[in-house]
Structure prediction request, 134 residues.
Amino acid sequence: MKHATNHRRAMTVVETIVAAAMLTGMLAVCLQMLGAVAARHRTTETRQLAIREAANLMERISAIPWDELSPETVDRVELSESASRRLTGAELTVDVAESTDPIEQRRITLSIRWKDRSGEFVRPVKLTAWRARR
Prediction:
């Protein structure tokens, strides 16, 4: 009977070691997933910030009177201080182009790009608006 008890105790130790190894493996996978989710969340928050900044800038540009709306005028438009701080290496491009249509209008194109943690530029946020002479 003593042999069966020792055998059962040995199995319990082996089972415990296997369970601990499985738990460690699952914990490692969970931590990797948590890190990936956190990185994706940061990426999404950064993109949303860039979208809000682009929308705010486009609104400011759209408020410029028609006669003053030119490439030289929009060259003075800059990113906000908070966006410049949070969007690493951010670059703002604004273009105003005259339309060749019978209706006198201008196409305003705005683009914001920035670098990710690896130092590579991410897909930019772009907005285009049309302004017609009233």
